[in-house]
Amino acid sequence: METNHSLSGDILRILSSVPEHLRKSIILNKISEFFSMSDEQKSETINSVLEGYRNLDSTHLIPVLTTCFRVISAQDAKTIVNTFCIYFDTLLVHPELLQSVNLQPIIETLGRLRIDQRHLLVDCYFEALLLHHERDRLKSMTPEFVMEFFRT
């Protein structure tokens, strides 16, 4: 399993150095694959990506995150909410991931998006949080600086 996480980190590192238009195309293909997976496969994918994410510095993360957020914000809201719900389920099974992931690059990247993209992602995040049966536990797991960012 560790090899998959190392591989995820390597893939994300390589992806960060690919020109934007190619990175967007690759991410679009991967997102299409992701949406065709079972929920269990989606959870495994999210877990693997988060593990790979942990091993990268912000120089490699921000280009990938920016492209991902732009691509994801082009999806319909229901799909984004569903994806956040699967992400939350993954975090509930592996809460240590949230403790070990540097969330600052995510916050920084969200701040760089167009206001409509950022609002869509934040709105979908909170809708998914409010709909989730473990919302109180999830809220307690979320660092305060993240919640403050979302309130602005």
Give a structural overview.
By secondary structure, this protein is mainly alpha-helical. It has one domain (2-151). It contains ten helices and no strands.
Mean pLDDT: 87
How many beta-strand segments? Answer: 0
Secondary-structure element order, as H and E? HHHHHHHHHH
Largest sheet features: none
Unreliable stretches covering 5 or more consecutive residues: none
Distance between the termini: 38 Å
What share of the residues lie within helices? Answer: over 70%
Topology, please?
Layout: H1 2-16, H2 20-35, H3 39-54, H4 58-72, H5 77-93, H6 96-100, H7 104-112, H8 115-131, H9 135-141, H10 144-151
Characteristic key phrases:
single chain, 152 residues, mainly alpha, globular
Task: Please give a quick description of this structure.
With 152 residues, the protein is mostly helical.
